[in-house]
Automatic annotation (TrEMBL), chain A:
Protein name: Amino acid ABC transporter permease
Subcellular location: Cell inner membrane; Cell membrane
Native species: Microvirga puerhi
Membrane spanning residue stretches: 20-46, 67-87, 182-203
Family: Belongs to the binding-protein-dependent transport system permease family. HisMQ subfamily.
Domain ABC transmembrane type-1 stretches: 19-207
UniProt topology in membrane: Multi-pass membrane protein
Top-level taxon of origin: Bacteria
TrEMBL record, chain B:
UniProt keyword Hydrolase, yes or no: no
Membrane topology term: Peripheral membrane protein
Protein family membership: Belongs to the ABC transporter superfamily.
Protein name from the UniProt record: Amino acid ABC transporter ATP-binding protein
InterPro entries hit by this protein: AAA+_ATPase, ABC_ATPase_HisP-typ, ABC_transporter-like_ATP-bd, ABC_transporter-like_CS, MetN_ABC_transporter-like, P-loop_NTPase
First and last residue of the signal peptide: none
UniProt keyword annotations, A-Z: Amino-acid transport, ATP-binding, Cell membrane, Membrane, Nucleotide-binding, Transport
Length: 217, 257
């Protein structure tokens, strides 16, 4: 045990960097994914036919493809068409597109679950459609979409570990490097697992806190 | 009096949902300050008529003229075109609608519900919108509830907030669609009293209701609709006195149990 703790201390900076990168990747993906998801969810429900079709296709492809395959695709395909992304950028791209599809679909569901009387009441006082969306529909949809949105965030923290495959120095890859040097396989995998768990529990608690805030009415 | 323009003029209104004809040529005129109740059995097209006036439904033929302006459609080269969202929104804001199921915005307080249209449609500043909202909430007897959320209010209180929300926009015409039908019996009276109050203030009201006594007490005219048509249009004393048409007599017999 003492030797393990010594090794942790020696490897503290690489592990810390890996952990930070994991968090950065997850946050970038959830932010970008939420932007894409909002556009996607609104278009799926209210867009013109062609746009509905394209976003439906996007959602189905993203949801039907393993995340690992998405990551490899985002790593290799852009260079073929002359866009150069480093491994981290490619990974964030893949996770954002994945998250965008999930968030788009859950936002569509949340918007659809709002009783039609809400939009009617908003229109009847003279709000335009964009105003109805902004002030009446989205605030309600975002509230009910919060718990599954947090789940998507948890998926992204876990999914970021897959980026080790394309050489992104996030927590899992750094852990594997430390294991390669110390041969303390089980100890360091458990250690990494606990760090992921801590990140996910914190995110979950944050979600519950926001939920209490907005629903304590 | 003869050259006073009517506030609302509905001419030959036709509306169908697919192959089902809901309105079969409805004519109806309201003068400013008039209170008109529409009665009739369910499926007679009363609610659909109100929703057409509020432009929540499209209609296939006929005109609705509100304060001299033909609403909902324009005629270009002999063809009817539905107006654009922005234009429809402006016209909708000239009428206020109160719904059977209240439809308050659950994420906003009572005052927030009333203020939304004042801020975003009427473009009032926050302070001014707030004071107008407070004034209307106290007009419907809810001054002390302005910071409550809809879930914290009773059905009757919610419906009064909805009335304040519609009235605060200063509409030319207020449409009330079975505003007491979703309420517990003991809460009906407080809402009817509120409506009576705004009628006495001189608002122009078009009311769809199943409350016959209320229709008789508050209305200048009562319209009986049956199967998508106006069958009777007369002062309440005549409607509830010796009914002329057999269909009306039958309807009234069935409602007075």
């Amino acid at each position: 045990m003492q030797t393990f703790l010594d090794q942790v201390w020696i490897a503290r900076w690489p592990l810390w960097d890996g952990f930070l990168l994991t968090i950065e990747i997850a946050i970038s993906a959830i932010v970008l994914g939420t932007v894409v998801g909002c556009i996607c969810g609104i278009q799926l429900l209210f867009g013109p036919a062609i746009s509905r079709l394209l976003f439906r296709l996007y959602v189905d492809v993203m949801r039907g493809t393993p995340v690992l395959v998405l990551i490899l695709a985002a790593f290799y395909i852009p260079s073929v068409v002359g866009i150069s992304l480093n491994a981290t950028q490619a990974g964030i791209l893949a996770l954002s597109l994945f998250a965008g599809a999930h968030i788009g679909e859950l936002l569509r569901g949340a918007l659809q679950a709002i009783p039609p009387g809400q939009a009617e009441a908003a229109r009847s006082i003279g709000l335009t459609f964009p105003q109805t969306l902004t002030y009446v529909l989205l605030p309600q949809a975002l509230r009910s979409a919060l718990p599954p949105w947090i789940n998507t965030g948890v998926e992204l923290i876990k999914g970021s570990s897959l980026l080790s495959i394309i050489g992104v120095g996030e927590l899992l890859l750094k852990t594997q490097e430390v294991i390669g040097r110390t041969f303390m396989t089980i100890e360091f995998y458990i250690f990494a697992g606990l760090l992921y768990l801590a990140a996910n529990i914190s995110l979950d608690q944050l979600g519950k806190m926001i939920e209490r805030r907005v629903q304590g009415r | 009096m003869e050259n006073v323009q009517p506030l609302l003029e509905i001419r030959g209104l036709h509306k169908h949902f697919g192959s089902v004809e809901v309105l079969k040529g409805v004519d109806l005129t309201l003068r400013r300050g008039e209170v008109v109740s529409i009665i009739g059995s369910s499926g007679s097209g009363k609610t659909t008529l109100l929703r057409c006036v509020n432009l929540l439904e499209e209609f296939q033929d006929g005109d609705i003229v509100l304060d001299g302006e033909t609403i909902g459609y324009s005629i270009v080269n002999g063809r009817r075109h539905r107006l654009r969202d922005r234009e429809l929104s402006r016209q909708r804001s000239m009428t206020g609608m109160v719904f059977q199921s209240f439809n308050l915005f659950p994420h906003l307080t009572a005052a927030g519900n009333v203020m939304l249209g004042l801020r975003k449609v009427r473009r009032f500043g926050k302070e001014e919108a707030r004071s107008i909202a407070e004034r209307w909430l106290s007009r419907v007897g809810l001054a002390s509830r302005s910071d409550h959320y809809p879930s914290q209010l009773s059905g009757g209180q919610q419906q009064r907030v909805a009335i304040a929300r519609a009235l605060a926009m200063d509409p030319k015409l207020v449409l009330l669609d079975e505003v007491t039908s979703a309420l517990d019996p003991e809460l009906v009276q407080e809402v009817l009293n509120t409506v009576k109050g705004i009628a006495d203030d001189g608002a122009t009201l078009l009311i769809v209701t199943h409350e016959m006594r209320f229709a008789r007490d508050v209305s200048h005219r009562v319209v009986f609709m049956d199967q998508g048509q106006v069958v009777e249009d007369a002062p309440p004393a005549e409607i509830f006195g010796n009914s002329r048409s057999q269909r009306l007599a039958e309807f009234l017999r069935n409602t007075r149990t």
